[in-house]
Amino acid sequence: MAATDAAKITIMKGYEEGYTAATFALHDETHTIGNALRWMLMKNPKVEFCGYSAPHPSEPVIHLRIQMYDNASAITALTDALENLDQLAIAVNDQYRTSLRRGAFERFEEE
Amino acid sequence: MATRSLNDPRRQVKVGTERVYDVANTEFPGNYPGEDHSWNLKKFRKDLKVEIQRLSRRSVEFDLVGVDASIANAFRRILIAEVPTIAIEHVYVWNNTSVIHDEVLAQRLGLVPLDVDPSQMEYHNGVATDRNTLVFRLQVACERRKGAAREETDPEKLYKNSNVLAKHLTWVPQGEQESFFADHPPKPTNDNILLAKLRPGQEIEIELHAIKGQGNEHAKWSPVGTASYRLLPNIQIHRPIPPPLAEKFQKCFSPGVISVDPTTKEVKVADPRRETMSREVLRHPEFEGMVSLSRIRDFFLFKIETESAYPPERLFTEAVTVFRDKVKRLKVAAQALAVEAAQAREGEADADADAAMETD
């Protein structure tokens, strides 16, 4: 649970010069973040390709492959995608709380 | 508010007789010439709709519209596996003469949901303190009840404590816990969970330590009974249904989905949410080409049932908090990588400059 933040993400060997294409290993993560991050990266027009995998079901690691157009940096794309996911979560939570506060829903009793 | 129509074919996962079509989202940059599908927070906020539909003391149902399946699924997975709760982890059996084995009893005790707000406790890091461990005792002995009728067969009337229930768990405050938990003393959420059965002479004496944990380690720490979503069913009627067939058409769907006007026999879709997608209507040749079935790809009908100390409406907010924490930690790590990469590049540039000087 509390892995040290320093080794949270590592870049796997075989990356391109200037990180224009790289595979990142996200440690202690699952499909939960892997798939959401993949989707957000694919929303970036500078990203040529993005895909993720869980190399083995009993190892808590996600491999995330990012390839960029025009010699852009995959690390920058990754930080941007994380920032965007955070803002997305804020937006969803805001609307949920607004709906809860408005109280325009059915209340019912169970058993 | 969602501005896009439910009849937009790109939002539909089409349901055919034998299979589903157009399952994957295709709205990515570069996929549709002349259209911009890059991430846009303003547009996302405008198209997003989160609306609570029903709320009870145990469950909440809400619509989440305008997000990709990967996002909805992330929240669902976090609800099940990563929102923390408190559960019994260490069981010290001093005495157990009941017919249920120690290890089986310990497993059952672990599954008892406890009514303790997990935000009030820390994670257990190997050393038990009064900030991370709650102590309970379970001490029950079974005896004969004097004066029970000779022909009585009901164990409840024959014996005292024939059933060991969750309410027999007594909390033993440690250190400052007594005052800290004064308003809301820790106890099981349900008093009537059967833990073991006893007969006269049998006895259970156990000490239990409850700690904070997450569902990904063991399901006993999962805060939800179920956390699930389905996609909104969509029924499009292309041509008017002939009046003599109206009732038959209605019967092809779940009750309440289709309404038929009693006089004109006009058919309308009244409540598509109730549809179970039996696809019965597609079996009848007389309805061919009149109707198409689909589900809306970005319209999630969430249902969350709490089985923990969290009230149902708080669970989703907790899941979002966990999601944001995960993203934040990854962002710190990614920024560290960016700094490292920049330093490496500077180092290389310096080395190149040095090399150039030497050759001069």
UniProtKB/TrEMBL annotation, chain A:
The DNA-directed RNA polymerase RBP11-like dimerisation domain, residue ranges: 21-89
**Name under which the protein is recorded:** DNA-directed RNA polymerases I and III subunit RPAC2
Could you tell me the superkingdom of the organism this chain comes from?
A: Eukaryota
Pfam families membership: RNA_pol_L_2
Q: Which GO terms describe its cellular component?
A: nuclear DNA-directed RNA polymerase complex; RNA polymerase I complex; RNA polymerase III complex
Q: Name its cellular compartments.
A: Nucleus
Q: Which UniProt keywords apply?
A: DNA-directed RNA polymerase, Nucleus, Transcription
Predominant location category: nucleus
Molecular function in Gene Ontology = DNA binding; DNA-directed RNA polymerase activity; protein dimerization activity
Q: Write out the similarity annotation.
A: Belongs to the archaeal Rpo11/eukaryotic RPB11/RPC19 RNA polymerase subunit family.
Q: Please provide the Gene Ontology terms (biological process) for this protein.
A: transcription by RNA polymerase III; transcription elongation by RNA polymerase I
The family database entries (SUPFAM superfamilies) matched by this protein are listed as:
RBP11-like subunits of RNA polymerase
Please give the InterPro entries that the UniProt record associates with this protein.
RBP11-like, RBP11-like_dimer, RNA_pol_Rpb11_13-16kDa_CS, RNAP_AC19, Rpo11-like
UniProtKB/TrEMBL annotation, chain B:
Give the CC-aspect GO terms.
nuclear DNA-directed RNA polymerase complex; RNA polymerase I complex; RNA polymerase III complex
Q: Pfam families, from UniProt?
A: RNA_pol_A_bac (PF01000), RNA_pol_L (PF01193)
The record ties this protein, via InterPro entries, to: DNA-dir_RNA_pol_30-40kDasu_CS (IPR001514), DNA-dir_RNA_pol_insert (IPR011262), DNA-dir_RNA_pol_RpoA/D/Rpb3 (IPR011263), RBP11-like (IPR036603), RNAP_Rpo3/Rpb3/RPAC1 (IPR022842), RNAPI/III_AC40 (IPR033901), RNApol_insert_sf (IPR036643), Rpo3/RPB3_RNA_Pol_subunit (IPR050518)
Origin: domain of life: Eukaryota
Where would you find this protein in the cell? Answer: Nucleus
Chief location bin: nucleus
- Gene3D superfamilies from the xrefs? DNA-directed RNA polymerase, insert domain, RNA polymerase, RBP11-like subunit
Which protein family is it in?
Belongs to the archaeal Rpo3/eukaryotic RPB3 RNA polymerase subunit family.
Protein name from the UniProt record: DNA-directed RNA polymerases I and III subunit RPAC1
**Organism per entry:** Exidia glandulosa HHB12029
